[in-house]
Amino acid sequence: MDKPVYLFGGGSADGGKELKELLGGKGSGLAEMARLGLPVPPGFTITTAVCAAFQQEGRLPQAVAQQIPPAIAHIERITGRRFGDAAAPLLVSVRSGARVSMPGMMDTVLDLGLNDETVRGLAAQSGDRFAWDCYRRFVCMYGGVVLGLGDAPFDAIFEKVKHDKRAATDAELDAAALAEVVQKSKELIRERTGQPLPDAPREQLERAVEAVFRSWENPRAVAYRSLNHIPGDWGTAVTVQAMVFGNLGEDSGTGVVFSRNPATGENALYGEFLAGAQGEDVVAGIRTPLHIAQMERKFPEAFRALSQTLHKLEEHFRDLQDVEFTVERGRLWILQCRSGKRTGAAAVRIAVEMVDEKLIDERTAVSRVEPSSLDQLLRPVFDPGARAGARVLASGLAAGPGAATGRAVFSAA
Question: Distance between CA atoms of 329 and 222, rounded to whole angstroms?
């Protein structure tokens, strides 16, 4: 194995889009954006080659594990925070990233680096409720993903505390209630595994990396690869990145956005945004997100930066972009970019308009429209006039991200 770990952040990166097979879509995209000088939290990517070695050995190779501390030191130098230090705690995310997009198929761990000491340091810097909200998220995600206990037992604890506190939403729980969730979740981990939740951030990180590599072979990922003809020996990369926080308050938030409408192809931003939230909240359905256009009124400077970033990414990659982002205290951070999925109608319109805009040539435009997209165009669709006069049963963005909201109505008619 030549080079198992690639660094990015601070305006530079070891690799870029040319190393997509090795760094995966997420890692190569982040590295490329760092090269472009875009606001990307620093981090590092462990390659798909390591995934292959992990699947053979059943554990992270020692030579790779030895590369993690200096890679963490790289993040520490850029952020000014220190991993496991209560005075200025560094928290990281651990995410998968195959060379082709496999949304939701593999595992993620957020807010890693918290324990009973660092949570107090985080609270001193950013407030009690925020710190305990992050700790609650980490304990539940670590127990569910890394320790294999699943989401259900932790969700049950959280819902019980909400019920006992008569809280209609997560945001109504105070720091003490969130600390109660943490304590009960840690007790559950000890009961179910016979071991306490690991306190040492470096142990947490190594085990989380192994869990994400392991998720390449989980049943849903295997089924997805089979349906989409993705070879099992490609493996996934793992990206470890400094956390930025959309749950710091009403001046923070998170969202997902397409550079053009993936349902129609219209050249307009399309997506959702949620204030006072972390990334998983947008797709979890626990709160109703705002349309991306409403972000302009709430965070005008961050929205302007987001629009400029999407334009720059489209010009650079010459394709529809699907972007995940966080606003932390008014500052924009980009967490992922990739070529966006689109409907058949959108594929044709985007390809034609990008030729007109001189982003791509005609040969590229033809190659962008899959045969299945043409098949979609030949299928019957609802008449727009009939749709305009129909009774609305539910509302939501047509092609994701997110889900429809409203009351479900069933009829035998």
Answer: 39
Counting residues of the chain whose pLDDT is more than 90, the rounded percentage is 78
Structural contact between residues 206 and 66, judged by C-beta atoms closer than 8 angstroms:
no
68 pLDDT higher than 60? yes
Q: What is the pLDDT of residue 104?
A: 83
Closest C-alpha among 259, 253, 258, 287 to residue 273: 253
pTM of the model: 0.87
Residues contacting 363, CB < 8 A, separation 6+ = none
pLDDT of residue 199: 94
Query: Distances in Å between the alpha carbon of 354 and those of 46, 258, 314, 358?
Result: 34, 15, 10, 6
**Greatest pairwise CA separation for the chain in angstroms:** 65
Burial class (CB in 10 A: 0-12, 13-18, 19+), 216: buried
Confidence category of residue 396, pLDDT binned at 50, 70, 90: low
Q: How confident is the model at residue 402 (pLDDT cuts 50, 70, 90)?
A: very low
Is the distance from CB of 128 to CB of 178 less than 8 angstroms?
no
For the ranges 77-86, 155-164, 235-244, 284-293, the lowest mean pLDDT is seen at 284-293
Q: Which amino acid is at 22?
A: L
